[in-house]
Amino acid sequence: MSVSRFFQRFVFVLAAAIFVALGMGFTLGQFGFLGVHAGGDQDGAYRQMHVYAEVLKHIQTDYVTEPDLNAVTTGALRGLLESLDADSSYLSPSEYKIYKDRPTTGIAQIGITVSKRYGYATVVNVVSGSPADKEHLNDGDVIESIGPQSTRELSLAVIRLMLEGKPGTPVTMSVIRPRKSEPDKITLMRTMTTPPGLSEQQYDNSSILFLKPGALTADRVDAIAARLKAAPKTQKVLLDLRDCSEGTAADGLRLANFFLKEGTLATLSGQKYPSQTFTADPARFITGAPVAVLINRGTYGAAELTADAIKGNKRGDVVGERSFGEGSVQKTIELPDGAALLLTVAKYEGPDGKKIEDEAVTPTVQVGKPTVDDFDIEQPTPSKGDEVLDKALELLKAKNS
Prior knowledge:
Blueprint: H1 3-24, H2 41-62, H3 69-82, E1 89-91, H4 93-101, E2 112-117, E3 120-126, H5 131-134, E4 142-146, E5 149-150, H6 156-163, E6 170-176, E7 184-189, E8 199-203, E9 208-212, H7 218-230, E10 236-240, H8 249-257, E11 264-269, E12 276-279, E13 291-295, H9 302-312, E14 317-320, E15 328-334, E16 340-349, H10 356-359, E17 365-366, H11 387-397
Parallel strand pairs: 9-10, 10-13, 13-14, 14-17
Antiparallel strand pairs: 1-16, 2-3, 3-4, 4-5, 4-6, 6-7, 8-9, 11-12, 11-16, 15-16
Helix pairs in contact: 1-2, 7-8, 8-9
């Protein structure tokens, strides 16, 4: 059964279950016309719908007060989607209207990339100099609530909408920080924020070119290309993709191609999604000099594709912490009542066949925290200097051009 038909049937069966809960006395088995028949994978789904009907019936008849069935059903649908992955969301009719009508330009933010971990909104990384940075927000901080609403009860799409708005408008949040027993309540003013531009530096008597793009937007990837073309052929390259979360998959793969003349960069596939294999284009290849890539748990999306392509083709060392794990494609499915699903339909895999969304990018040389699974438990212990940078420089110095 296709994904879309499954959800159409689920919503239809759910409506039938509500009638059961309201006392009509039917079981799901009497609704044979719904097209849900026992056998194969559908048998388990059929049984789960029956269980759901029983649960809904007891909520209706035994809960301490008469429940709002619309709220109960919305919560169940939201939980169903979020059980798949953080990016899949159920949007109620009112939420979907806001989502569709949101402006595409002039949007102010507080300067964070946010995803979900353990049900709550979690800070992936923070833009330097942004309102979030000035309030000392860090990657791994948990946003417990936005205004009066717990982020556990909000889809990721809605959380991101709530953090955006007109310049100069406030956002009040309750933030759980590592090693603090009580959440901090903070108010940030939305501003027009952009990641820092491409920065560069020379190391080891100019034998190593350090490049930090801040984001993998098309203009910054173009700037990296120009800089690489201008560099001596023997100059080694240190590419810093730490806390890099903006950019498209196409530009992340294009950047990897600068260092790869051949080989698979990534693949994209899903149950019903046309499989695509992205192969290095020799015409885009720029340099065969030794390269090292720096990553951390704020490395997200397009930057992960770059790092994984270089790692998977054994083109260079990837140094630092395990990345966040984001690499998927969503499809919007509108429902008859005006609601919608934002459903993940495909995921990117690195050259080794592992899905980035599921396993993230593991560095070839680990420096720092071993996993992202303790995001909301502790921050890395502060250290003098930049251990990740120092290690990458040590590795590059040891390589012959």
